[in-house]
Amino acid sequence: MKHVQTVVREAAPAGPGVRRLVLADPDGWPLPKAKPGAHIDLYLPGGLVRAYSLCGDPAQADRYVVAVKRETAGRGGSAFVHDALAVGDALGVSLPRCTLPLAPDAAEHVFVAGGIGVTPFLPMALAAERAGTPWRLHLLHRDAPPLPDALAPLVETGRAVLHDTARAPRPALASLLGPAAPGRHAYCCGPAGMIADFEAATTDWPAGAAHVEHFVPPPLAPDPAACPFTLVLARSGREAALPAGAPLLPAIRALGAAVEASCEGGICGACRVRWLEGPPLHRDRVLSPAERERDLMACVAGCAGPRLVLDL
Ligand code: FES
């Protein structure tokens, strides 16, 4: 597993309940490159691993910028970032992963965000601007928006529009997105209710034209297609007999292989593993149909056959 050691260079409030961190290499070297829309895991005390979208300028190779919203119902990760993490502290992070890339063939991008869900769209909007691809950002928020300094220049251009739902009725997402059109790609990052509305508003759009990023893993029901199977790790030759629906991650680790994990709910892309024999049951929200022909997300995948062979 490749980790990156960083140091906190800046930490400052950035909107209500939000703390913005600038992380850098301790010696000032460029950090591993990140695509616009990528996120990183922060490795926090107590074994907590938390994913945050990068929200800085992707052209600035010497820093990762994240914005952390305080979650009062969380398990302490955001509270640590807000209350204990200080400028000068060391912080391990993962390599960047991008599960919400800009569609390379898009003629137009429409971004819809809820609150702190705006973070991945800030670098994506900058990249679209530099590529000369038209874009529009709609941010739905209550009262003051997050990251006001980063948003202000985008709002000034007229391409980013803020919708304060504390002062005006919440707009219908279909009206913000407009109809499906050749080359138009739509993206959504926000709470579960907003993503459900977005998926309903884009149900008639062409396959691959609507993209979402979840905040929290959606609940997963047991899959009736799951059956008992033998898990085989091809490189070590180790194997284990597992009951139907058994989680893969602990089984893989018990067989001595290391697989990274973050969300453990199929939304972050950390635990991607190549499969060689299946068929696997895919229950993640990150892999495309073409990617599923080759890879699975070990935190939520299962098996619909007698053997699952992984390239581990
Ligand atoms: S740990 Fe996030 S997708 Fe598996």
From TrEMBL:
InterPro entries: 2Fe-2S_ferredoxin-like_sf, 2Fe-2S_ferredoxin-type, 2Fe2S_fd_BS, Beta-grasp_dom_sf, FAD-bd_FR_type, FNR_nucleotide-bd, MRET, Riboflavin_synthase-like_b-brl. Keywords: 2Fe-2S, Flavoprotein, Iron, Iron-sulfur, Metal-binding, Oxidoreductase. This is PDR/VanB family oxidoreductase. Residues 1-103 form the FAD-binding FR-type domain. The lineage of its organism: Bacteria, Pseudomonadati, Pseudomonadota, Alphaproteobacteria, Acetobacterales. The keyword Iron-sulfur applies. SUPFAM superfamilies: 2Fe-2S ferredoxin-like (SSF54292), Ferredoxin reductase-like, C-terminal NADP-linked domain (SSF52343), Riboflavin synthase domain-like (SSF63380). PANTHER family: CARNITINE MONOOXYGENASE REDUCTASE SUBUNIT, NADH OXIDOREDUCTASE HCR. It comes from Craurococcus roseus. It comes from the Bacteria. Transmembrane segments: none annotated. The keyword Metal-binding applies.
